[in-house]
Amino acid sequence: MPRLLPALAPITTVLALGLIAWSAFSTRETVGQNRTADEKSASVQAFFKAQCLKCHDATKHKGDLTLHDISTDIAGGKDLSKWAAIAERLKAGDMPPEGEKQPDPDAIAGVTGWIDGELTAAGKSGALKPGSLRTGNHIPHELLFNPNAQFPLDNPPRLWRISPFIYTEAGRAMNKNLKLSQPFALPAGDGFKDQSGSLGMDTSTLSQLLRNAEAIVDTQLGLTKGSKTVSVFQPLIDEQSPATRLQLEKAVTYQFEFALKRKPTADELKRFVALHETNVKTGGAEAGTRVTLMTVLLLPEAVFRMELGTPVAAGRRLLAPRELAFAIAYALTDRAPDKALLDAADSGRLKTADDVTREINRLFADPKIEKTRTLRFFREYFGYGEAINVFKNDKDFSGHDARSLVDDTDRLIGDVLARDQDVFRELLTTNKSYVAFARADADQKKMLDEQAKYEQGKKANPDKYKNRVAPNDPSKLRSSAYNLNEYPPSMKQPVELPATQRAGILTQPSWLVAMSDNADNHAIRRGKWVRERLLGGTVPDLPIGVDAQLPDAPEKTLRQRMDVTRQVYCWQCHAKMNPLGLAFENFDHFGRWRDTELGKPVDASAVIDRIGDKSLEAPYSDSLEMIRKLAGSDRARQVFIRHAFRYWMGRDENLGDARTLQAADAAYLKSGGSMNALIIALLTSESFLYRTE
Q1: Nearest-angstrom CA–CA distance, 619 and 629
Q2: What b/e readout covers 509-518, taking b as 16+ CB neighbours within 10 angstroms?
Q3: Packing angle between helix 634-649 and helix 372-382, nearest 10 degrees?
Q4: Is the dihedral of CA 328, 334, 337, 340 positive or negative?
Q5: What is the rounded CA–CA span in Å between residue 243 and residue 280?
Q6: What are the CA-CA distances from residue 138 to residues 353, 381, 537, 642 (Å)?
Q7: CA 265, CA 568: separation in Å to the nearest integer?
Q8: Residue 395 phi/psi, 5° resolution?
Q9: Backbone conformation region of residue 650, classed left if phi is above 0, alpha if psi is from -120 to 50, else beta
Q10: Could you tell me where the beta strands, DSSP code E, fall in 91-170?
Q11: Residue 225: in which H helix or E strand, if any?
């Protein structure tokens, strides 16, 4: 597994004070291709001795960082993680901290450019060792998308525990009428849930798996009400006439194919027949058969998916055909491989990237196969599904219906995916939206009938209907989170909302509610999302013991109450989030557009800074201007692709994935922004197909 190093805290002022001195060797050329490694090392060590050791020596190392012995031989593989962290913090503006003398921006660009160049050289020279740098957003973005990058693949063999979604679908495939309790749970918090290293097992999970296996086998043996015995098992439960070896082998083979989608090996067949004979002697035919069949359902292979690969070159292993079949199926769906995919694996037609492309295109083209994983990616990437977990007081807005809002966004994303062109930009900029669509679809006939009856009655007896409210009166709307004043059945869906108020998923009420509190906006959470998911930046976790509460001051706007975060201790992190999250203050915590807050004009101004991309670093009037700028930027698109990589690979990216990310970005652009093309590029990459030793 990729090795994750602890996050380095921001380096203190002392290191920052000497940054200008770096301008003397701020590029790899100035450092001197003519200077020896010893000369460079001596210069750096002298610099650190003079400027930095006060806080970062062997005995006093603030932020868990020591620089007294750091080596400038980056290309030789020395102190790679420290240098990557220094570059990351410089680009993020964490050092020097605000309030201290700031070095010239060109000097910072020179330092980080030199570090990036040396790190790239470390990859070219083979000095980069697996796990020697951090993963995810902690990797400098410019390194991953450097066309000259030649970092070695770092992707060890691994096991995946199946997800709750896969387990549920497997149970349905076994018996639609069988009710199985879910033994698995996904991790809480932000980020993608189904990751290879985050899903484990515990005693309670094993106990539930055992109970479920018992329930499945009892149904197979006709021991539960309304069930019938599977014919191949009938000879095994006959107490009067022992089953023959051939009958035992057929029963074991059936159960392996039923649970594992494969036949048992000769050795497995021999062992399970022997196990069954022992079980029958111990407990009788029926009880012994139950235990034997349950054992197959509890094999590790029924719960864990292996990606070990077979050796194909020095240090490299290609996923075996059946491993690849399951990897493809579970990348796109929650179901085990279909017959065509397993046949391709078993017949030797699933070995190359072209074979994988063929099978993925076949699955994409089959409307009967539900590609559940793609929509789930967008739910988890944007996080709007969390709206249903945010409690809201109905007295504040009786029309709030979080589940309906999530359904609306699901349907909008479905439309964009169906067109499959310029997907990322479209999802960030479209002003179209479904509005209470699930409810409108279900209630349309009823509402129209009620409206027709109301109109007829009012025409026939105006006085009687004088004080009655029309069925589609705005006061009865559940769709006013969208600032509409008519009921959805009378509108053509999707609805085109004002472009002055809405731009894509980040202005959908579902996302705004998900990024809110019970009774207020959560600008910090919204800003953190933009910083991490669109800009590729990092925000440290909340320090232990910090009471992150805004003052209770109902007479102040949220922006005013957030002034407390400008304290020196807080602002180093909040500077990365607040200026981005406050851009969404034109919306209230129900997702409704507003021009005023507490009777004052809303200030939704924003600033993008501390990312090292001058094309984006600027002030913005509001979220709409900021979102539209990001939607057309290379950086935001590439950061989106980095997140797609994490979802479909089940792990964070590392430097060894640079070629995969660049190829995926190129495929996305060449296809005109096709999500399918992006997925195919990822699933045919070396990062997906190969494991390293």
Answers
A1: 11
A2: bbbbbbbbee
A3: 120
A4: negative
A5: 10
A6: 30, 18, 8, 12
A7: 65
A8: -70, -25
A9: left
A10: 158-161
A11: none
Kind of pairing between the strands at 600-601 and 596-597: antiparallel
Amino acid in position 594: R
For residue 215, give the nearest of 272, 161, 290, 104 by alpha carbon.
290
Beta partners for 495?
A: 433
Residues 6 or more apart whose CB falls under 8 angstroms from that of 622 comprise 583, 586, 604, 605, 606
Alpha-carbon gap, residue 341 to 319, rounded angstroms? 15
* Of 662, 658, 690, 657, residue with least CA distance to 678: 662
Q: Enter the tokens of residue 635.
A: 């950086």
Nearest to 23 by CA among 114, 119, 116: 114
Where do we find the tokens 């798996």?
209
Q: Which of 340, 322, 475 is nearest to 398 (CA)?
A: 475
d(CA 133, CA 368): 43
Structural tokens at position 89: 């913090």
Contacts of 52 (CB under 8 A, 6+ apart): 14, 15, 18, 67
Q: What H or E segment, with its residue span, contains residue 411?
A: helix 402-419
Alpha-carbon span 3 to 6, nearest angstrom: 10
Write out the two tokens for 466.
């004088």
Residue range 20-47: mean pLDDT, rounded: 45
Strands 310-313 and 304-307: unpaired
| Residue listed under structure tokens 């290879």 | 196
State the Cα–Cα distance between residues 255 and 269, nearest whole angstrom: 11
Burial, 450: exposed, middle or buried (Cβ in 10 Å; 0-12, 13-18, 19+)?
Answer: middle
Please give the pLDDT value at position 27: 32
Q: What is the pLDDT of residues 212-249, one digit of tens each?
A: 999 999 999 999 988 999 999 999 999 888 899 999 99
Burial of 570 (0-12, 13-18, 19+ CB in 10 A): middle
> 210 φ, ψ to 5°?
-65, -45
What is the residue whose two structure tokens read 């796109």?
A: 332
Count Cβ atoms below 10 Å from residue 394 Cβ, excluding itself. 8
Output the six-digit token pair for 181: 């309790």
Taking the C-alpha atoms of residue 383 and residue 46, their distance in angstroms, rounded to an integer, is 48
Global pTM reads 0.85
Q: Within a 13 Å sphere around the CA of 137, how many CA atoms are in the beta-carbon half?
A: 24
- Omega cis (within 30) before 2: no
How would you label 238-273 residue by residue, b for 16+ Cβ within 10 Å and e otherwise? Answer: eeeeebeeebbbbbbbbbbebbbbeebeeebbeebb
How far apart are the C-alpha atoms of 686 and 468, rounded to whole Å? 67
SS3 category, 309: coil
Q: Which residues pair with 608 in a beta bridge?
A: 618
Which amino acid, one-letter code, is at 18? G
Token couple for 170: 């497997």
* Torsions phi, psi for 608 (to 5 deg): -105, 125
User: Which amino acid is located at 550 in the chain?
Assistant: L
Give the separation between CA 62 and CA 12, rounded to whole angstroms.
7
Q: What angle do CA 257, 259, 265 make, to 5 degrees?
A: 50
Q: What is the pLDDT of residues 575-623, one digit of tens each?
A: 999 999 999 999 999 999 999 999 999 999 999 998 889 999 999 999 9
pLDDT of residue 13: 28
Residue 592 phi/psi, 5-degree rounding, is -90, 140
Decide: 329 and 341 in contact? Cβ < 8 Å: yes
d(CA 623, CA 503): 9
- β-partners of residue 112 are none
Query: Residue 444: which residues within 8 A CB-CB, separation 6 or more?
Result: 489
Average the pLDDT over each of 133-137, 225-229, 498-502 and give the range with the smallest value.
Answer: 133-137
